[in-house]
User: What shape does this take?
Amino acid sequence: MKVFPITTNLFTYKPDFKRKSSPYISDVFAEPVDTFVPSFQAKIKQPIKTLKEFREHTTGTGHHCLYCHKELKYGEKDIKDWTEGGLFSEPIKTIVQHFKQYKPSLHEKEKEVFSMIEELSEMYPDAHLDTVIKIMSILANKDLYKVQKPIFDSIVDQAKLLPEKEKNAIESIIEISKKRIFHQPYIEEYSALELRYQIRRLTEAIPNDEQAKKIEKLTDLLMIQCIRKEKKDVTYDAVKKVLETLYPDQEITVTKAMKKEYTREKLRFTIIDAIKREAEAAKSGDIVQLCESAKRQLNKEPIVRKFTNKGLKHDLAQVLEPAKDKGGQAQALENNKENAKHKRIRTRIFYLADSLPTSDSSIQAFIVKHDRSTSEKIAYDIFAPSSNTAEHLLPQSQNGTDDITNIAAACKRCNNDRQDGPMEKLFRRHGRENAQLYADEVIADTNNGYYTYQDGLGILETLEQQSGIKINRDGLKFPQPRK
Ligand SMILES: [Zn+2]
Assistant: This one.
């Protein structure tokens, strides 16, 4: 029997597919020599051309992430199905049972969280994910603080070198941060600007655009000069604008009595209540809580707020970075001629804040971040980072198209980590050899007719161009004509 060359390639480039008895390999031997190429093609009606076909082909079939080489066992669609099917609201014993099979493909941090859940599922099989995370968060919070505290101390040390006013402001930010970490109530002044910033940040997570816009529009009312600031008198126009936004179907004429009734305080509460109602409709518990806190602030009552790195950095920036839109103030600061020493201290403080453990880098931070989250949100954040996504080799922002020669399989975390930056930083992190491992899967797929020869070659060329890593494509077989 004549040995045809492709077998060598098939063995060399055999991807680690889940189907252990790869149908195409046994078929090669079963087929007469001169028809083996068409036999691959015959198995697939059409080579992959669309993103949908690509996702289906690379999910749960032994394909790996281009960058981290984790196996892509499920896709975003699976997560959607699990969520909608209510799987994540089941007791943890059910969740553990179902997801054990996916554990090897999780990233290290999520894998460890899953292991902890597995352990707890033996003690509390009927508990739900949100409860389990709450239990875990008590210890995690203490452990996390052991890492946070020396960083806070260093920030305060640096702040001591700054002018008195900034030093005091930063000390109080750190004090409040500690209170937030341990869920202790504290008094905080109401700030419309701050509230709007927080709400804007949270509306991004509202899937319904219309609801998100409505909430933002209402929040903007709090920024009307005479409502925002204590000094100015409330105007007819302001009352009219608020009432028109609240009751868009009604003709509003503001009478003298109405203007008297709608004091600044009443307007603020009315607007915040309206935001809260919309947030409830949009199922945004976080915005509802913010509204509750804002009302407590207005009543000069203590509030409890969760610590976040983002919140801390925002507060630090408010003190350390003169905002461009503050106009006069920014100008004044510039005239003060910031000296180089203070600039360096500011940079160091931001650097320290950036070094705080994040939910991406620390298991404890991940657990603490989710101590009030729903079971669905927790499960999503455990499983989504390892799900299969279609990565654009040349980023869309650089006019990269959906053409199949520009698409690779990557886990959601790597895809997000790269954004539209160079691939190099990801290969440096995970290993440059992963580019060739991915190329080998593309070569095997092409040889097996999942891609046309041109597309297969195109993918390898784009990968080489974008990664700057030399790709060995010797295994790629030019399609052989039927004899
Ligand atoms: Zn990856």
